[in-house]
Amino acid sequence: MRGVHRTFVTGVTVVTTTDQDTPKGLAVNAFTSISLDPPLVMVCVQQSSATHDPLLHSTHLGINILAADQRSTAAVFASKGADKFATIGWERAEHGTPVLTGTCAWMEAKICQRLDFGTHTAFIARVVSADYSDRPALVYRAGEFFDGSDLSCAQRPSVRSEQ
After folding, report:
1. What pTM was estimated for this model as a whole?
2. I need a labelling partner for 16 at 20 to 30 A (CA). Which of 44, 70, 112, 118 fits?
3. Dist CA 45 CA 133 (whole Å)
């Protein structure tokens, strides 16, 4: 299964929350939009992660979509470091959730549901605030990071009109 998953191209996100007012976060590639109306998203977090239990007890979470020049930020949040926020620029969103600076987009979302799926918990959340820029995204595939602005469009199939 690991080989199958490595073929999937995904953006790089950092999920954030607080634990007794201390910012917590981890790199997550299991992120998806569920609905635009209402604005619902989902992230899946491994239960052994140090950020998992703070997320279980939080009302809100942040989803930060990293920009192409934030490879070092991805490495910080993929590590098991104690204070991942020490060298990273961030601020608090309206509900106190840490959001990273310099991302191509971020969302603060109210956690609506927590679903236990063996090794992971799926957090379903309603977006309450968001912002984005035109910065290119950091992209991940098969253990490598790529600049999202350097992607080439797949050729569109030609459409033949029937006469």
Report:
1. 0.89
2. 118
3. 26
